[in-house]
Design goal:
The structure holds two protein chains of two kinds. Chain A is built from 17 helices and two strands. Chain A is mainly alpha-helical. Chain A has one domain: Formate dehydrogenase/DMSO reductase domain (Formate dehydrogenase/DMSO reductase fold). The N and C termini of chain A lie close together (7 Å). Chain B has two domains: 96 residues, Alpha-Beta Plaits; 66 residues, no CATH class. Chain B is built from six helices and four strands. The longest helix of chain B is centred in the middle third of the chain and has 27 residues. At the A-B interface, α1, α6, α7, α8 and α16 of A face α2, β2, α3, α4 and α5 of B. Chain A: It is a multi-pass membrane protein. Chain A: One of its GO terms (cellular component) is plasma membrane.
Chain lengths: 476, 177
């Protein structure tokens, strides 16, 4: 699978790093004492989590009546937040699986953090499933278990049951994929560890890895199959989430465009969240040589593409609502754009369709500040997209006497805040105790894709590449 | 895993570069030395072939696990919806395999991934209580180690050391397990 990388390609690793530099730069933040910034951020996250947990317990104790739901709008922020988090959870496995199959080498620097983000986002999404079910202690009713409640089984025809299978499979496989990727790096930290505790902990979690050629060969083979499995899996998850809506007969939901439209939107919001996290990580952990402007630009290109797909989907939906001649459908869409929730609709349109188009400009695409701001805007827009789809479709029932509005209560908002506390607590723990960049994978691209120093300085460029500067041999 | 049973004296050649170690494997083998194993901080493409390791059969295991997942999903849906408690929801047939495709797919992927990773861990002898056999601690950082089992070679220690050095080894150490 060796192939050549043109020397005119921009390097993916700058600063003329050697293998030892990679280990040192990335292990450093795991081994050192927590920085002040990290400690402050962690305390804030935990405080938010504690507040959110308290509100969540009250939600469960008192019942879902504490939310602003009514008999017309029976699904609102809970499902909006669930779909939003699941969507965000699409970028990690997309980066590590699909980009592995496409041999996009820039993925090596960001896949670890993106996969961690995926796992934590799916945990947040799952927490909304638990919340909106109202009785988390009977969550096992979603599973096809033999029971004494009347020998009923779960309804396998329901997309909600498909969702149970899709999300739990996605979570499990993503977790396994991420953990397998971590093992060689955990072994690196184990072998550098000075304290007994960390040697024991990293030793246990690295499962006795010693990097033998046989293990590596099998490992590579396994990663390839896992990537092959995860690729359709990523696409299936949001497809099935979209079917929760698409298989119903609510105007505005009952459309066949939902699966591709949801998947594109998921990748769109996932990459935006990866941008936000990675832009912070690279500064705080001083990883600018590994996560370069090239990486950020590549991800912005994905955001532009998927954002445009989402834009086309919005317009197609509108067109079909008119072209179908179904008056309920037409009304649902006109009501979205001009009804009482017009502001949510136009917030969605602006944030998802208009502002990401700024990334056509190379200067904006490569600007850290613009990228950060636009990524936040994208995720605000994607939250509104789900809100618009869910609430505006429900709030106008078939009978005008049933028309209603949805107003969030303190608990709607607090339960959403809970998920942020959970997400950032987990992410900060990850960024302190685990290497945020995949060291082993970055080392594989050092020779072919890094900025070179003279051979005598770098100590790695001894091979034929120096004699033949036009092409670099790439070992992947 | 052969490592777990190996004991005795090893010569360990330490290399600085992955291309050098790949070439060294070929050179050392040509000189008639039996190589125990090579250890590296990242995968080196073609190294397993150069060492003569057989092609991994993990794919077969993965396929078998995938198949078992599909069969599980088929039998689960057929037993519950087609036999034990048929339900007609929305006027659809109580058992039509098409509507269960998402279940088939998800369980296939789940069984395949978990089964394959489990097989990988078992076949490589990896586990939380396993103590790694490290020929050199730097092989998880920036060095590449070629281990030679002296008990399995007829060539003398001094000669092997010379062969390793001339193949590009920066240093040659003795490791006793």
């Amino acid at each position: 699978m060796s192939h050549v990388t043109s020397a005119v390609r921009t390097p993916l690793v700058t600063g003329g790093k050697t293998y030892a530099d990679v280990t040192e730069d990335i292990s450093k933040q795991v081994e050192g004492a927590p920085t002040r910034e990290w400690t402050i951020a962690f305390i804030i996250a935990v405080v938010v989590l504690i507040y959110g947990t308290a509100c969540l317990f009250w939600t469960w104790w008192e019942g879902l009546g504490v939310w602003g739901l009514n008999k017309t709008v029976g699904w609102a922020w809970d499902i909006t937040n669930f779909v939003w988090w699941v969507g965000i959870g699409h970028a990690g496995t997309l980066i590590s699986a699909i980009l592995l199959l496409f041999r996009q080498k820039w993925r090596t620097a960001v896949n670890r953090a993106a996969e961690a983000m995926t796992i934590f986002a799916v945990i947040c999404a799952a927490s909304f499933i638990m919340m909106h079910a109202g009785r988390p202690w009977v969550a096992y009713w979603c599973l096809p278990l033999p029971n004494t409640l009347g020998s009923l089984w779960v309804n396998f025809k329901s997309p909600l049951v498909w969702d149970v299978f899709a999300i739990s499979t996605y979570f499990t496989v993503s977790l396994v994929f991420w953990y397998m990727g971590l093992i060689p790096d955990l072994a690196t930290i184990r072998d550098r560890a000075r304290s007994k505790v960390s040697r024991y902990m990293y030793g246990a979690f690295s499962l006795g890895w010693n990097g033998s050629a046989k293990t590596w060969a099998r490992y590579e083979y396994m990663s390839l199959i896992l990537a092959g499995l995860s690729t359709p899996l990523v696409l299936s998850v949001h497809t099935i989430v979209s079917m929760d809506f698409a298989t119903s007969v609510i105007p505005g939901w009952h459309t066949t465009i939902f699966p591709p439209y949801f998947v594109a939107g998921a990748i769109f919001s996932g990459f935006a969240m990866v941008q936000n996290l990675v832009l912070i990580i690279r500064v705080v952990f001083k990883l600018e040589d590994y996560i370069t402007v090239e990486h950020i630009e590549s991800m912005n290109k994905v955001i532009t593409l998927t954002g445009s797909i989402v834009g086309v989907a919005y317009l197609t939906e509108f067109f079909i609502a008119w072209y179908s001649g179904v008056e309920f459908e037409s009304y649902a869409f006109i009501n979205r754009a001009t009804g009482p929730y017009w502001w949510a609709y136009w917030a969605m349109m602006t944030c998802n369709v208009i502002t990401p188009q700024l990334f056509w400009s190379r200067a904006i695409r490569r600007s850290i500040v613009w990228t950060f701001v636009l990524s936040v805007v994208v995720n605000i827009g994607m939250w509104f997209e789900r809100f618009v789809i869910i609430v505006t479709s429900l709030h106008r029932d078939y009978l005008p006497s049933s028309w209603a509005m949805f107003h969030p209560t303190l608990f709607d908002i607090s339960d959403y805040i809970f998920s942020f506390g959970l997400f950032f607590t987990l992410f900060l723990l990850f960024s302190k105790f685990l290497p945020v960049v995949n060291m082993a994978e970055v080392k594989t691209i050092i020779k072919s894709s890094s900025e070179k120093l003279p051979a005598s300085v770098s100590g790695v460029a001894k091979g034929e590449r120096v004699a033949n500067p036009t092409f670099n041999k790439d070992v992947e | 895993m052969s490592d777990a049973h190996s004991n005795g004296k090893f010569l360990v050649g330490i290399y600085d570069d992955d291309d050098v170690v790949l070439q060294a494997v070929k050179d050392v083998k040509k000189a008639g030395v039996r190589i125990h194993e090579v250890y590296s901080p990242f995968p080196i493409h073609g190294l397993d072939v150069a060492l003569g390791h057989p092609r991994s059969r993990l794919g077969i295991a993965a396929f078998m696990f995938a198949l078992s997942g599909t069969i599980t999903a088929l039998s689960l849906t057929f037993y519950t919806e087609g036999f034990d408690w048929p339900m007609i929801v929305g006027g659809k047939d109580s058992y039509s395999p098409i509507i269960y495709v998402p279940i088939f797919f998800e369980l296939t992927v789940l069984f395949c991934a978990l089964g394959m990773v489990g097989t990988f861990l078992v076949s490589n002898g990896l586990g939380p209580t396993v103590k790694p056999l490290m020929y050199d601690l730097r092989t998880t950082d920036n060095k590449f180690a070629m281990a030679i089992d002296l008990s399995k070679n007829n060539i003398g220690e001094v000669d092997i050391e010379q062969i390793l050095k001339s193949s590009g080894a920066a240093e040659v150490n003795v490791k006793q397990f």
